[in-house]
Amino acid sequence: MRPYLSIELAGAELWLLADKAVYYPAEHALLIADAHFGKAAAYRRLGQPVPHGTTDDNLQRLDKLLAAYDCRRLIFLGDFLHAPESHAPATLSALQAWRERHSSVAITLIRGNHDKRAGDPPAQLNIHVLPEPLLLGPFALQHEPDPHPSHHVLAGHVHPAYRLFGKGRQRLRLPCFYVQAQVSLLPAFGAFTGGMNIERGENSKVYVVGDGAVWETL
Asked: Tens digits of per-residue pLDDT, 35-83?
């Protein structure tokens, strides 16, 4: 089974990736929402017992995506860093080493609510930071899922998840892409981010992610 599902949206082809990202072939662009780098480090500084290694795991997943697809651009749809405490030396060192491995890729960050609090990434990461929206083809790339007057919105922020049919503990909850008429949501890329349950509305589609694949729910 392919690790992506090709869909047509707003007259353009998008690949919904099993690793919770979108590849836009016409623009050679990889879209990532809600990475929240340094979230675990921020929680540990507050004395919370949370797992180590989440930043490294997320960066390794990004390495694989950049190797698998012809990516000339990498665009983060907000919430690159989680909090001011995410500027921990270990987190920034890991990000710097990762950036050096992909120095030829143009990286853009569209500021999200967490970015405004955490502050922009360090200049040495060479990430172009701008407010929403970023217009790319027929799409308005944003963090907040607010409609745009002329473009179809691709956004993050919500961390959408969907409950599949079942009863009690047998109900499976998976990250999802939520495609609507004007605004579509990407799942959170970060591995330590949680999710918000969404209900499929009229004229919308839900594509869940799990077990290395993407499929549409019925």
From this structure: 988 765 555 555 555 555 578 889 999 999 999 999 999 999 999 986 7
Walk me through the domains of the chain, giving residue ranges and CATH numbers: 4-216 (3.60.21)
Q: What is the pLDDT of residues 158-171, one digit of tens each?
A: 999 998 866 555 56
Helix 54-68 with 89-101: angle, nearest 10 deg: 10
pLDDT tens per residue, range 131-152? 999 999 999 999 999 999 999 9
Residue-by-residue DSSP string for the chain: --SEEEEEETTEEEEEETTTEEEEGGGTEEEE----BTHHHHHHHTT----S-HHHHHHHHHHHHHHHS--SEEEE-S-SB-SGGG--HHHHHHHHHHHHHTTTSEEEEE--HHHHHH-PPPGGG-EEEEPSPEEETTEEE-SS----SSSEEEE-SS-EEEEPS-SGGG--EEEEEEE-SSEEEPPP-SSS---EE----TT-EEEEEETTEEEE--
Phi, psi (degrees; rounded to nearest 5) at 58 = -65, -40
- Distance between CA 13 and CA 10 in Å, rounded? 8
